[in-house]
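Hi! If you just cloned this repository, the fastest way to understand the data is to look at a raw example. We've pasted two of them here, unedited. The first protein comes first, obviously.
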Amino acid sequence: MFCKNCEKQIGDDEKFCGYCGAETIEKISDDRVRYTTPDKNHSGHTDNDFSQKYTTTRDNSGNGEIAVGVIALIIGGALTWITYEAASAGGTYFVFWGLMIYGGYKILKGLAS
């Protein structure tokens, strides 16, 4: 293919011209990419417009954080309720604040990502 800037011949898979440093990829305003490639007869170059929009997939790691947070919150609440019921006739019970706060933190972290 030929560089659009200095018109020297460069390799077909080059992203930058080795002579002038110009990019061989032209970005179009609506997030499409136009690649400059030689035509079939190698008599010049043509612009191929790949009009599929490139979409990025959302990382689902936030869903895992939320799930861990909900499980930790449920376990902390259940353990607190079990010890409270066991101590209802008299005695002490445990409140699992650490586990419940950790669960709330993981839920908020998952929602933020």
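Ok, and the second one:
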Amino acid sequence: MKLPVRPLLYSVIALAASAYAVAELAGPKGVSALMSNWEQIRQLEQENNDIRNRIAEKRKRILMLEEQHDAIDIEVRRELQQVRKHEKVLILEGQPKSPAPTDPSTPPSP
């Protein structure tokens, strides 16, 4: 009786290929590494978006400071923590100290 060699050989090759694929996917460079890389990519994309948002806000602030000269005065006084004569400063507990208004688009009070 003659055994069919080709189908048996194909079955052994398919089984070996399947075992190799499972071993590679379960190994350190397999699915876990792929998931880790996807997570890193997601985190880097989020950081990239945050940086883009901060850049856009700073560009908007720069344009506003270029257009409104009163805003420059307010910003300088806020950074240097200076107040004008006859200007009242309210200090609230739990809030950061700021002698000038936090919104540079508002004009200073007389």
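That's it. A detail worth noticing about the second one: Residues 12-55 form one domain.
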